[in-house]
Amino acid sequence: MAKKEQSYMFFLVFGAIVLLLNFGLWMFFQSKENESCPVIECPTTTLPKLECPQPSKYEKLKYRLFYLYPKKCKDCNFTIVDFIAYKIGMDIDKVQSDEVPRPALLIISRGRASLADATSAFNMLNAICQEIGNKVACEMREYVNISKIYECLDFFNISHDAVFFMYDDRCRWCSKMKRYVRDLEKEGYKFYWAYRYNSSQMLPVSFCMGEIMDEKGIVPQFACPSTRELHLGAFLNETELRDFAKRCKSAAINSTNSSS
Question: What does the domain layout of the chain look like in residue ranges?
Fold first, then answer.
């Protein structure tokens, strides 16, 4: 009789243990199933819907960059956005949004969101540098700073004494200036040609000369990085352009001598 009672107690205790284990496992998986996604607070914008990420994917979402632009955008420059993204090694998603009147950069960093002006390369790089601390963005920010024009020119392998010449093939006065520029190049003066609808040629204009030249302005435009001098429109004659190029060349030489 005692043996039967012992066997009965053994099975009773064993069954209780199994029941508790099953209940514990059920509670564990139930809590995982009901686990909610991490909440990222963003300004009201038209953004692509993000799926609930797994922990490994959430780490990749630690820093997210969105280039927001309006439907009819006059200040948009997707080439600069792609160039910055390539250089800093991060994706910058382009999203059309009715919430922004001008281009803006939405930065999601460490669970918080900030909105920065994105109408210029400097503003974008400055925001990425400050919010994320991206080293390359901080270095590039100095390139586009007006006090660092020479470093920016070196970045694009452009001579310090080169005169920036922005033109349009459909511009009658630009055609005349092209002849002047070619003549002066034969005399040894240097020019950087920037066709306003060639995004690659316009990159140095945006990055290095953005504080001097007017990318959206009239053509032709001539600018000297050494003197910070800008000439809008055509020169009356080749002599005037030669004098402009001569001042630019002399200023570059003097700057080099003073720094050495």
Answer: 56-144, 150-259
